[in-house]
């Protein structure tokens, strides 16, 4: 059971009573009559061969209120796409799988490339973006939720609590972020959020003052959670980042487009575990090291759009201030772990802080060298303006793939 404290600029919806799943799903079944729900699952084919996704599919097969499940499938050849269709066929809902590497969707991507509108980089951002386009085209869902496919602690309550704030017609929320404790196997996880994002936000507040944007970002209990939900009309103006800054970028977009009283966060799980990335101490182009650089650049870009001026000297101050604040957080988390009987490796934690501090300077230098970098994929409003029939073409391509290969 959590506390009931409200802090920051957005509403926090707690788990105060451990309400039964049956009771909550009964509400969602009623809500679905007026606000049908679509679930978006960005997936690699390799995740179908793992432990988490097959279990998730068995659970989703029992969910009674979903109208549609849309899967974005990356890194799959034809035989793997056929196998994916077979595995997803256990789901009783309306299911479509976007074969992102298939010839039809590749042709559509090339069409956008010619107009300079296509996503530039492969990855989760691109995958999610095309799935959002299909959800717009299908028109089946009014409330949409997204979560990753590597959650080993997945259950129906997690999904129900994620959908509830945007599906309930008595609520006025346009967007909801999930949060949870990152504890598994007797230790604290969530290093990038604990040791980079929160200390960096506190650093930027200390140097640049308590701006509305920084206060807003500091309101989220787990800003890097890959689980969020939203009303369908959010999709039109949303610019999806194509790098590891996806979650931070989406939160920044919601800040740009909506009043904070239309946004919330909800406790969706007592404990959460999924696939863990390597820290990658020796390679800044992968793992948590690359993630830290991309996230830092997301913050720097956003602040720059609000008039903040950066320089090489600024980034040295940011590094020094961050390092002190982050080390204080290491001590805080150590004590929190001890009182809860959790393992805590202070050496690895401080090593990670040292890496992140170094990467802040690298992120700053990359920003100064290319301040006009725009890693955002164009909004769907822009696509439909430039290519009025594109959403219909996308839907037709997905349907054609399904009819041809679903045998």
How does the SSE layout of this entry go?
Elements: E1 11-13, H1 21-34, E2 37-44, H2 52-60, E3 66-74, H3 78-88, E4 94-99, H4 103-114, H5 124-138, E5 143-146, H6 156-167, E6 175-180, E7 183-184, E8 187-188, H7 191-208, H8 212-217, E9 228-231, H9 234-237, H10 246-257, E10 263-269, H11 287-305, H12 312-339, H13 346-369, H14 380-386, H15 390-405
Parallel strand pairs: 1-10, 2-3, 2-5, 3-4, 6-10
Antiparallel strand pairs: 5-9, 6-9, 7-8
Helix pairs in contact: 1-6, 5-15, 7-11, 7-12, 10-11, 11-13, 12-13
Provide a brief overview of the structure:
The chain is an alpha/beta fold. The chain contains 15 helices and ten strands.
Describe the overall structure:
The protein has helices at 21-34, 52-60, 78-88, 103-114, 124-138, 156-167, 191-208, 212-217, 234-237, 246-257, 287-305, 312-339, 346-369, 380-386, 390-405, and strands spanning 11-13, 37-44, 66-74, 94-99, 143-146, 175-180, 183-184, 187-188, 228-231, 263-269. By secondary structure, the chain is α/β, with parallel strands linked by helices. The strands form 2 sheets. Strands 1-10-6-9-5-2-3-4 form an 8-stranded mixed beta sheet, sandwiched between helices. It has a two-stranded antiparallel sheet with strand order 7-8. Strand 3, helix 3 and strand 4 form a beta-alpha-beta unit. Helix 1 crosses helix 6 (156-167), helix 5 (124-138) crosses helix 15 (390-405) and helix 7 runs parallel beside helix 11. This is Glycosyl transferase. Keywords: Transferase.
């Amino acid at each position: 059971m959590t506390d009931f404290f409200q802090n920051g600029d957005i509403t926090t919806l707690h788990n105060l009573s451990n309400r039964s799943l049956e009771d909550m799903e009964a509400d969602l079944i009623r809500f679905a009559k007026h606000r049908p729900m679509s679930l978006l699952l960005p997936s690699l084919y390799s995740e179908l061969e793992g432990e988490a996704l097959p279990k998730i599919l068995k659970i989703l097969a029992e969910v009674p209120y979903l109208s549609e499940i849309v899967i974005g499938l990356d890194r799959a050849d034809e035989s793997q796409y056929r196998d994916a269709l077979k595995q997803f066929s256990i789901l009783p809902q309306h299911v479509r799988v976007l074969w992102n590497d298939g010839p039809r969707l590749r042709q559509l991507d090339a069409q956008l490339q010619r107009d300079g509108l296509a996503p530039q980089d492969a990855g989760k951002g691109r995958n999610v973006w095309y799935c959002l386009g299909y959800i717009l085209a299908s028109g089946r869902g009014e409330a949409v939720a997204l979560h990753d496919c590597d959650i080993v602690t997945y259950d129906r309550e997690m999904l129900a609590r994620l959908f509830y704030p945007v599906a309930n017609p008595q609520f006025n929320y346009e967007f909801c972020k999930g949060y949870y404790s990152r504890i598994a196997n007797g230790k604290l996880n969530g290093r990038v959020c604990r040791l980079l994002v929160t200390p960096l936000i506190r650093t930027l507040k200390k140097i640049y003052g308590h701006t509305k944007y920084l206060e807003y970002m500091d309101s989220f209990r787990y800003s890097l959670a890959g689980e969020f939900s939203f009303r369908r009309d959010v999709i039109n103006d949303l610019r999806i980042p194509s790098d590891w800054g996806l979650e931070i970028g989406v939160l920044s977009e919601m800040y740009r487009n909506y009043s904070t009283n239309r946004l919330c966060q909800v406790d969706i799980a007592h404990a959460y575990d999924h696939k863990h990335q390597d820290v990658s101490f020796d390679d800044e182009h992968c793992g948590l090291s690359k993630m830290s650089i991309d996230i830092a650049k997301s913050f720097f870009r956003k602040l720059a759009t609000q008039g903040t001026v950066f320089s090489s000297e600024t980034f040295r101050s940011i590094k020094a201030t961050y390092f002190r604040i982050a080390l204080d957080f290491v001590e805080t988390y150590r004590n929190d772990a001890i009182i809860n009987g959790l393992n805590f490796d202070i050496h690895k934690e401080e090593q990670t802080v040292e890496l992140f501090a170094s990467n802040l300077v690298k992120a700053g230098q990359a920003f100064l060298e290319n301040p006009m970098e725009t890693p955002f994929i164009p909004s769907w409003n822009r696509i439909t303006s430039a290519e009025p029939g594109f959403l219909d073409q996308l839907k037709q391509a997905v349907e054609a793939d399904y009819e041809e290969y679903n045998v």
